Amino acid sequence: MKLMFASDIHGSLPATEQLLARFARSRARWLVLLGDLLYHGPRNALTAGYDPAQVAERLNTLADRIIAVRGNCDSEVDQMLLKCPITASWQQILLERNRLFLTHGHLYSPENLPPLAAGDVFVSGHTHIPVAKRRADGITLFNPGSTSLPKGGFAPSYGMLDGAVLSVRALEDDAVIAQVEITP
């Protein structure tokens, strides 16, 4: 299965348009959104091209192909604009040999994991910093970074699962920022 991941769009229409163009070219089955979709949040500056209503309209064109979780900046008002459900704190995707635990990262985090087993993948956003690594206990940590407000000197980014490879990729040029193979 091929999946695309994105987090922390924070209402940026240009970032959304780039992401959706990448999604169309990727041939991924699902677009997994890890929260903080429309609102910039009180601690963040406005994103370039800040237009939450238009971001919602663009995401609504793919509502039947989106799996989403709620971020700390998402609210019921945001859900009123979006056709896809975004209010779950977490979701899971079961692959043939792995479980992907999806959350934004403000409730569960790499420092506060839910019960997971070796081979499971903890997928989160929130920090705006890309991560793709396996811990000594066999749990994989994956964060696609942020499409609009990257931190740590990283480029705006998104994530892909293609077969057994999880990669964080630069939104602009598709360069691999980080990658890891998930364990069978």
UniProtKB/TrEMBL annotation:
Q: Name the family the entry cites.
A: Belongs to the metallophosphoesterase superfamily. YfcE family.
What is this protein called in UniProt? Phosphoesterase
Pfam families according to UniProt:
Metallophos_2
Task: List the EC numbers from the record.
Answer: 3.1.4.-
Q: Which GO terms describe its molecular function?
A: hydrolase activity; metal ion binding
Q: According to the lineage, what is the superkingdom?
A: Bacteria
Organism annotation? Tenebrionibacter intestinalis
- The coding gene here is yfcE
Cofactor(s) annotated in UniProt: a divalent metal cation
Question: What keywords would UniProt list here?
Answer: Hydrolase, Metal-binding
Against CDD domains, the record matches this protein to:
MPP_YfcE
Q: Where is the Calcineurin-like phosphoesterase domain?
A: 1-162
